[in-house]
Amino acid sequence: MIVEQVDLIHQLGLIVGTSRCIDYREQGAPANIYRDARAITGCVMPADIASVQKIIEFANHYSMPLYPLSRGKNYGLGCRLPVEQNNLIVDLKDIDHIRDYNDEAGTVTIGAGVSQKQLADYLVHQGARYRLNVTGSSEDSSVVGNALERGVAHYGCRVNEVIAMQVILGNGDTLQCGGPGGLGEPSWNSYAYALGPDLKGLFFQSAFGIVVEITLKLTPIAGPVQVASIEKKTTVPLAQWVDTLADLRYRNLLPDNLHIANPARRMSVVAPLIARYEQKGIQDISQSDLDRFCQFSATSSLNLDARLVDSYKTVITETLAPVANVHFADAESIRASRDVITCATRGVFEHAQGIPSDDALYSLGYEQQQLLDPKDLSASNVGTFFLVPVIPFTGADVDTLITIVNQRFEPQGFTPFITFNFIEHFNLEVVINLTYSTDDMGRVEQAKSVMLDTFEALNRQGYLPQRLSVFQSPVFGGYHPQYLSAVTAIKRQFDPNGIIAPGKYGL
Ligand SMILES: Cc1cc2nc3c(=O)[nH]c(=O)nc-3n(C[C@H](O)[C@H](O)[C@H](O)COP(=O)(O)OP(=O)(O)OC[C@H]3O[C@@H](n4cnc5c(N)ncnc54)[C@H](O)[C@@H]3O)c2cc1C
């Protein structure tokens, strides 16, 4: 049947419920923070896993490309935009069941649409011995979509927390992978490997199917969390400070949840929160408050048995004394503090306790001096693009990266907001973003071009991306040809008509 001859969305509505389908060809797609004019066919919001299977069957029949979203909060990396034109968005937000919480093993099974807040609240309600490892990306962002993109949360990469997953492949088959097979074994939901090849790795950063459910390992609550703030001393070179942190981490004396921020990132997070707390404009914040953030700073959370905490604190403070000013805070001291900055930034500290918030999102409005609505970013006139390269955890590499970024951002008048997150095998995931006003299309184009130029320069330096935005997927050429032919063969097997997220990650 020829696609144009049938009212596809209407037909789909008969299958999954008319109220669950939106036809963007009639209504026009919602605005986005990139002012991107990409055509999107529509949006379907399945109520259950069986409906996802029906949608995939339908899409295969009509060769209709699908773009799955768990919550669609992929800010800076594309938000709700598919990679290519004329996709139908499959919004999984209503597949939000939470089941089989195991308070001994610290595991839980969740639907793709479960938000950070839903799961965090559920755990509090259960009086759980475990907490969610939360990202800074809003209460409403997903756990599943974030994990599938290899998102990095407060206590590290979520990919390591996925024990099992259920996927509806592009060919319509259901695949249960990870875990010992679900045959009733005592370890069925806590042991991440079945016999034989571990297939779940195929579904991270790929486009082979729609993941409808995952079983997740949670973070144990070892004791009251202490958060170390490690600020670089003014006279110490950045590379020396970074190398001292790396050495401490290498010797396992600093927890691996290390997050480093450049001064612009720190100010962008703190200033809007102070403005909200004091009910004034961002431009009215006192310079002396802002001056407190003019150095690079790192945080790391000690989630340890109380008997170990003092030893760690002593080692960290003494070792870092020549290069950093170190302070520790716990939930109690933060609650009791009257300091304006501490009060305003409580939400950010709470990430260490597994409590998600929208607080980091306000940072996007800092440069435009706007207190934007974190529940609806596209209602503001602020946009952002992200770059996420990986670099070795050395002072020299941090310096090199910053030089590459500054050489491209500064001449165009863009401020680089940069975070460095420790990830596996002694690497840093670097999150670089800029912001712009979406009122000025020229500036949007300039931002796009600066980001692309920086993306290419970082790739040439060998700082390859840890994840790709929907804008970078089509232009990234760094795959090895043999790798590309192997994943293309798997794609053909799992998704023969190429209906799942075409163009994503080279597929
Ligand atoms: C201020 C700020 C702070 C941020 N902090 C963090 C952070 O700390 N850590 C971090 O990792 N990111 C962060 N982000 C980036 C981003 O917002 C998050 O990664 C967010 O979790 C992504 O949105 P989502 O979870 O709703 O996923 P979605 O937008 O739903 O999906 C993300 C991607 O995964 C694919 N996908 C989603 N669900 C499925 C599925 N079920 N099956 C197959 N494919 C699927 C989608 O096609 C899409 O490409 C931040 C962004 C901002 C602006």
TrEMBL record:
Which top-rank group of organisms is this from? Bacteria
Spell out the protein name for this chain: FAD-dependent oxidoreductase
Give the species. Microbulbifer epialgicus
**Pfam families under this entry?**
FAD_binding_4
Q: Which residues form a coiled coil?
A: none
Which InterPro entries does this one have? Cytok_DH_C_sf, FAD-bd_PCMH, FAD-bd_PCMH-like_sf, FAD-bd_PCMH_sub1, FAD-bd_PCMH_sub2, FAD-linked_Oxase-like_C, Oxid_FAD_bind_N, Vanillyl_alc_oxidase_C-sub2
Segments forming domain FAD-binding PCMH-type: 35-221
Record flagged with keyword Ribosomal protein: no
The record's listing under SUPFAM superfamilies reads: FAD-binding/transporter-associated domain-like, FAD-linked oxidases, C-terminal domain
Keyword annotations of the record: FAD, Flavoprotein
